[in-house]
């Protein structure tokens, strides 16, 4: 009898000690809900994505997210095998992203937080891509190569902020790949498709554009589409488009390592799923005696678990937010965020 009472006490204690965070991601195509605990365990990571044939229309994406919000939340609670009342904090992507999509996530988060009387925290989507990568790979102070649809940034922590050392001057590398795939009729999203087709391809020269520490992809996109229209082999163009854009990313990352003296590279964001990019960065790191750490594929793209984790670490570090402060911020930059938890 005494034993059972002791066990119950221990269980109660464990419950008090551990925190559970539910995170909502809705910056662009994906409405995601993740649930994590403070040991970094991902208890659930569910999502529904909207990939129309013709690029993304912000209002249509918002309608998609509104229609799927409840079912994705329920799927996440089911797969975590918890009740909504077990959640201790509600986190959501406050920016950057498409305003109508962001608003769906924010409204959903406010409704849950107010209804459940739980704290709410809006977090920066880009920082969440970095921190899920650091947590999963145990990277300490890396140069971050953040490559996704909308973003291409080479980042490093300095003076309490993630500074952007270099970034795209026009479109994100993932959007460039997706636009190419759509324009030549390969479908959407383009990344995994051109990766597969490019495996059989050979190198042909395409425009390579690094300006100081910044990159530009629009000339490369135009030229690659022209080559396909002129009848060049699709597998050669797919291979070379990837090779050229990834070589540009490697050059800037290498220079960032050299300037800062850091010894780790963390690859994160949706394009981090690319095996060719991982290979090329791996070779560069080996030559510089640095180590490459890549975010696992299941949390590389937009997902709720990274938002839940970001909310949890910020909450534990003492950040609090009033409901009036949860307005979305579509242009929120990586280097505006004070990193108070490191
Ligand atoms: P962000 O708001 O951070 O820019 P996002 O909306 O672009 O995010 P992510 O899920 O982070 O979304 O990234 C999606 C991108 O990743 C798409 O452009 C997709 O084509 C690309 N991608 C996915 N898999 C691969 C791959 N194997 N090779 C290259 N690109 C890939
Ligand atoms: Fe993203």
Question: Keywords, please?
Answer:
342 residues, alpha/beta, Nucleotidyltransferase, domain 5, five-stranded mixed β-sheet, 10 helices, binds fe (ii) ion
Q: How would you portray this structure in words?
A:
By secondary structure, this protein is of the alpha/beta class. It folds into two domains: 20-129 and 300-336, Nucleotidyltransferase, domain 5 (2-Layer Sandwich), CATH 3.30.420; 142-297, Nucleotidyltransferase, domain 5. It is 45% helix and 19% strand. The strands form three sheets. A five-stranded mixed beta sheet has the order 3-2-1-4-5, with helices on both faces. A five-stranded mixed beta sheet has the order 8-7-6-11-12, sandwiched between helices. A two-stranded antiparallel sheet has the order 9-10. Helix 6 packs across helix 8. It starts with a helix and ends in a 26-residue tail after the last helix. The relative contact order is 0.18. The model has no long low-confidence stretch (mean pLDDT 94). The chain binds adenosine-5'-triphosphate (ATP) and fe (ii) ion (FE2). The site of adenosine-5'-triphosphate has 25 residues, from helix 5 and helix 6.
